[in-house]
Amino acid sequence: MPDPQQPWYTPGPPQQPVPGNPYASEGGAQPGSGAQGFGPPTPPPPTPPRRRFGRGPVVAAVVALVLVVVAGGVYGLTDWGREDPAKPVAKESPRPSGSASPSRTPGAGGPELSHIPTTKEVAAARKPGESSAWIADDRTDIPKQINKVHDLWIVGDTAVQALYRKVTAYRLSDGAEVWSVTLPSAVCETPANPTPDGKVVVFRKERPDNERGNRCNQMQMIDLRTGKQGWHKKLDEPGDEDDTLIVYSAISGDVLSVARGQRAVTYRMGDGSKLYEVPSEKKGACFPDDVAGGAARLLVTSECMVSVDPGENYGQVRELDPRTGKILWRYRTKTGWRFGSLISMDPVVFTTFNNEDTANDWRITVLDPKGKHRVTFDARDKGFEECAGDGSGGNIQPCRGASVDKGLIMLGGQSQVGAYDVKSGKFLWGIKSEEMRMLYALRAEDGKAMRIYEAAGPSTPGRTFLMGPRGAGTETEVVKHPKATAAWEYEMFMGHTAYVDGRLVLTSTHMSGDENQKPVREARMLSFAASP
């Protein structure tokens, strides 16, 4: 255990942030440096992250791996910079990148997961010291394929989410279904955030079938507080209608923004009436390709294809006044780099990646309130992957496993979590798990400590704990997840997470509709709260 009177982290070689000129070369240590001899050995290279090209994401192949069961309910942590190397421990094989969970069989001696327990059964199996929990099961038929589970919204005392044709609200206190809306066709896109008063527009397919060429062009407004449907309109803009096979959306206050193909347009949330189109620039070479919202801010990203040589192209992000379209500021990436994923809207923090090495070469950039470059830094030397290994795929928000809170940029991922200073890009502190577990920072505590979720293993539950700069050995467990739900928690690996009023809500990002191809039944939603 570290000396409580001494800093536990001994800085290695300094980071090489890029102040001032955003187009200057970015240095920094190579991946793998600065953390030698601590925690588990460096795993083999993972499957390359997903990247966005043209109209839509290229999804990395999902490889099913056999995982070693690790017994016990408390998992050792080590901090970076300790003098004594970690003791050898049993390890799980590394998991692949990508948001779709690999297929798995129950651990040896584990439960047959054909039956998802009720919340009442979970409560009956709860052991002393374990948190309260609820589990939601949705038996609605879905196609025999991998179906996307869309953004998780917390509205009032409910958690709301869309899967296939159904939008469902679950009560946060006990997981009971409050309301559901069944739509005529499958939901194909949702914005990351609703309006401040809980309204959202979901995009659904043009036809009820599941065939190729079924466009994502039907807009349906829903009040997430009541489940009542509002206006419905077709996304009918000039140009190639095939551009609506994939769309991206965002909500900024009472404005809806939609990007498709090489154009973006905004609508009033109140009635769906069109406001304005976001123009291309440089005679069409810089075309809008994605949008991001939250509160009353609107960001629009563009790819600037000025050359056939990818090393000559670059990315751009603009902040627009959501109601008028007036450009408040613009920022362009270094030549040869593109915008990746948005980590934070306020302050604006995002990833960029190298056009010529999209799988491995990425950075984090911070802007000031006026869109001026503050700092760019390289988190690869501490072993972090972009968006916790999920990469830049689909919408630019959210960036899974990364967040900004109370002056900290918090990064998570496989076996590690760490904090960087948002103003300087300096690495402050971090910890590594002695097992191959996913670690996610849920929020900052007093600007120093972090509340961390450690995901479940094949037969062991996850946990939620507090950790601060004093390092490993000083963590405080705040929620002991019940063993009775561990198997279903594990199935939600790399899923959506939300933390609100001391309650953690988890869902998968994808669900299979072919029960014959999976030895387990997937739960719809899972939640934990500290024991009363």
From TrEMBL:
Compositionally biased residues, Pro residues: 1-20
Start-end of Basic and acidic residues biased regions: 80-94
UniProt name for this protein: Pyrrolo-quinoline quinone repeat domain-containing protein
Positions of the Pyrrolo-quinoline quinone repeat domain: 158-279
Native source organism of the sequence: Streptomyces badius
Pfam families in alphabetical order: PQQ_2
Keyword annotations of the record: Membrane, Transmembrane, Transmembrane helix
Stretches with biased composition (Low complexity): 95-106
Superkingdom: Bacteria
Keyword Transmembrane in annotation: yes
Disordered: annotated span: 1-53, 79-136
PANTHER family: CELL SURFACE PROTEIN (PTHR34512), OUTER MEMBRANE PROTEIN ASSEMBLY FACTOR BAMB (PTHR34512:SF30)
Segments crossing the lipid bilayer: 58-77
Taxonomic path: Bacteria, Bacillati, Actinomycetota, Actinomycetes, Kitasatosporales
Entry keyword annotation includes Membrane: yes
